[in-house]
């Protein structure tokens, strides 16, 4: 059974394995990356790898947790606080879409792995819900912070609908590469969200 590190040296070793796993899963994907390669990248022995993780799936779970946190607490952590409220509603909408793009391009390969597993793995589905919820919460806060510009009355519902459209577009353009002209898709998404959320300027 994998052990929980208590000493600083052991904690650092486990952290290096997680960082190495995130790097290699992001670059090569889960199925093309093995424990030996991860151990080499982390500069630890293969035995050390197995002393902290049952297998590479166990590592993927913990890497995915760290990755999801880098989005929910990193990209979306101060999402509403940093919105350009002094500018027009079009700039605010563009900021929302651009921030979502950042969240989906931190590690596209790792994000794909999470989405591929979310229908089979409850843990991955929960992490994905947390990411979407962080976007929704941020959008709702932004709308609540500029009531003089907003057209819709139910901010939470509006945030859910807009976040759903943003997530779908990000998946098609970034994670699935299904749109031939991604910039056009992002521009149309921004225009659609702007018209729905805000009064005409």
From TrEMBL:
Name of the protein in its database record: Transcriptional regulator, TetR family
Domain HTH tetR-type: 11-71
GO molecular function, a single term: DNA binding
Keywords: DNA-binding
Biological classification of the source: Bacteria, Pseudomonadati, Thermodesulfobacteriota, Desulfovibrionia, Desulfovibrionales
A Pfam short name: TetR_N
Superkingdom assignment: Bacteria
Chain residues forming the annotated DNA-binding region: 34-53
SUPFAM superfamilies attached to this UniProt entry: Homeodomain-like
């Amino acid at each position: 059974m994998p052990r929980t590190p208590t000493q600083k040296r052991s904690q650092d070793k486990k952290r290096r394995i997680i960082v190495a796993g995130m790097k290699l899963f992001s670059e090569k994907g889960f199925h093309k990356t093995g424990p030996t390669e991860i151990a080499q990248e982390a500069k630890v022995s293969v035995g050390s790898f197995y002393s902290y993780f049952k297998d590479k799936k166990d590592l993927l779970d913990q890497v995915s947790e760290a990755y999801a946190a880098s989005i929910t607490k990193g990209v979306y952590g101060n999402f509403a606080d940093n919105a350009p409220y002094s500018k027009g509603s079009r700039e605010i909408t563009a900021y929302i879409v651009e921030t979502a793009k950042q969240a989906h391009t931190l590690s596209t390969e790792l994000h794909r792995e999470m989405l591929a597993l979310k229908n089979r793995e409850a843990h991955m589905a929960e992490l994905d819900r947390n990411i979407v919820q962080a976007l929704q919460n941020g959008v709702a806060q932004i709308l609540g912070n500029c009531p003089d510009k907003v057209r819709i009355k139910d901010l939470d519902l509006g945030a859910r609908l807009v976040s759903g459209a943003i997530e779908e577009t990000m998946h098609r353009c970034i994670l699935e590469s299904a749109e031939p002209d991604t910039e056009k898709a992002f521009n149309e998404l921004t225009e659609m969200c702007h018209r729905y959320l805000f009064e005409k300027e």
